[in-house]
């Protein structure tokens, strides 16, 4: 896929067409990388996740439609004959959907195709997904029914609780598209499905001006009230933070204050003796530890200590969130060293990774079962960014909630940015993008290790930047870092 050639075609208002026999997860990864270029050119980077999610759903539907027709042909069934259709669909799930990895080999080089088309007109951009498989009347009725049903939903929580029809994997797909387009400000009226006796074509127009809807839900109101009700960081910690921020502070005075807090003292000694600071001799005193880690690192450790005390006190010990965050912190420090950014980010990288998911505490505390359902829906797939589903469910994602908490507790700007943009590093301010990209990659590597995400869900551009743009190389690196992480916790 030649990104520059495609951009050149769009600049001259020519239609760009990319053809496939079967769209793989690896090709979806390339499409995402392409969209970062295209939507950047259109000055609409903030819509990358929405457009990608819609296009990926349409491409998957085209894959399934072509696989179905190939299956019917092999079974010598007429897809337009109601009796044959019913007979074919009896075993479609077990013969095709449950053997999905075999479909690429069946369709590659065959008679069916899928095309992704793009064209710029003025300040609008048109997308289309086309495949040479006309929709049957039954399929069209199912599509129209799903689109009509979607009009009744204001958020994803309604859809999750209501959509139960999984025939042909119908379920949430079209509902998801309608909600995304409506809530993003693009508008569900900008999406159309056309069919004739030769092909099916789904079109999407992204207008120049998009005004996102303000999603108001019961959950959102509850969570925002929850944030208002959270206590400030403990006074004993803010007192030390103020001392750290004062350039005239006396290190002995700071050390004395830390020694009053046994848990904080233990964390500081552990940090000062970690491989990240590479000390030749064992650090055994608090004063020595303060000198080793520095005041900025100490201040950030205080934020972690304060947040953990509040979150564990309010919501109990959410071990799975903290375990993921601890792993992510180790991975981030490893990546910073590999990228020669250790000195540049030494005072922020570990804590940014430790606190990147603090917004999840709020989501899980108000409706743990629902958000676990979202995680299960995407678990182990290359489905991309789960924060979109959170936004559609309540109107806020966990990075946005984390940013609100960071603001409440007066975190420094670099820490706030790392928390807010760790799923969308391309939107981070340019001066902090390297930091956010490390947190993003560390998080994705951890998700891969924890089997929450697949390799092809990761931004291809960033994989190349980290020299991990090969699944074998990536898997080997994750295995290596995980081994180091586990040995560091023995």
Automatic annotation (TrEMBL):
Annotated InterPro entries: HD/PDEase_dom, HDOD, RNase_Y/CdgJ
Signal peptide interval: none
Superkingdom assignment: Bacteria
Gene3D superfamilies in alphabetical order: Hypothetical protein af1432
Pfam family for this entry, one: HDOD
HDOD domain: residues covered: 230-425
PANTHER family reported for this sequence: PTHR33525, RIBONUCLEASE Y
Protein known as: HDOD domain-containing protein
Organism this protein belongs to: Leptospira idonii
């Amino acid at each position: 896929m030649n990104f520059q050639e495609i951009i050149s075609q769009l600049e001259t208002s020519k239609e760009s067409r990319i053809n496939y026999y079967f769209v793989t997860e690896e090709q979806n990864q390339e499409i995402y990388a392409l969209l970062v270029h295209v939507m950047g050119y259109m000055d609409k980077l903030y819509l990358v996740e929405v457009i990608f999610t819609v296009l990926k759903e349409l491409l998957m539907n085209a894959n399934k439609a072509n696989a179905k027709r190939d299956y019917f042909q092999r079974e010598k069934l007429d897809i337009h004959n109601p009796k044959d259709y019913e007979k074919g669909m009896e075993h479609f799930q077990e013969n095709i959907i449950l053997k999905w990895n075999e479909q690429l080999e069946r369709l590659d080089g065959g008679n069916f195709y899928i095309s992704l088309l793009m064209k710029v007109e003025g300040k609008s951009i048109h997308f289309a997904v086309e495949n040479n498989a006309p929709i049957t009347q039954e399929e069209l009725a199912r599509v129209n029914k799903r689109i009509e049903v979607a009009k009744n939903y204001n958020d994803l929580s309604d859809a999750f609780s209501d959509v139960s029809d999984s025939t042909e994997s119908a379920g949430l797909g079209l509902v998801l598209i309608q909600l995304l387009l409506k809530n993003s400000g693009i508008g569900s009226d900008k999406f159309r499905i056309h069919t004739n006796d030769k092909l099916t074509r789904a079109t999407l127009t992204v207008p120049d001006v998009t005004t996102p809807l303000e999603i108001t839900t019961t959950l959102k109101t509850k969570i925002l009230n929850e944030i208002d009700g959270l206590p400030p960081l403990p006074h004993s910690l803010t007192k030390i933070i103020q001392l750290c921020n004062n350039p005239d502070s006396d290190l002995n005075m700071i050390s004395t204050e830390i020694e009053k807090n046994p848990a904080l003292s233990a964390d500081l000694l552990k940090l000062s003796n970690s491989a990240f600071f590479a000390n030749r001799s064992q650090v055994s005193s608090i004063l020595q530890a303060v000198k080793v880690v520095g005041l900025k690192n100490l201040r950030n450790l205080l934020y972690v200590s304060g947040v953990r005390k509040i979150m564990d006190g309010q919501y109990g010990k959410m071990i799975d969130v903290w375990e993921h965050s601890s792993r992510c912190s180790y991975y981030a420090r490893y990546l910073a060293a590999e990228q020669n950014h250790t000195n540049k980010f030494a005072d922020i990288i570990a804590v940014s990774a430790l606190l990147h998911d603090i917004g999840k505490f709020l989501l899980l505390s108000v409706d743990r079962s629902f958000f676990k359902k979202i995680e299960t829906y995407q678990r182990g797939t290359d489905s991309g960014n789960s924060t979109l589903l959170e936004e559609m469910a309540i109107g806020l994602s966990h990075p946005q909630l984390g940013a609100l908490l960071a603001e409440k507790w007066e975190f420094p700007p670099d820490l706030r940015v790392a928390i807010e943009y760790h799923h969308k590093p391309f939107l981070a301010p340019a001066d902090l993008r390297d930091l956010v990209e490390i947190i993003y990659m560390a998080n994705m590597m951890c998700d891969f290790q924890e089997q929450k995400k697949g390799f092809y869900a990761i931004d291809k551009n960033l994989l190349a930047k980290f020299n991990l743009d090969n699944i074998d190389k990536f898997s080997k690196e994750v295995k290596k870092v995980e081994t180091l992480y586990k040995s560091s916790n023995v």
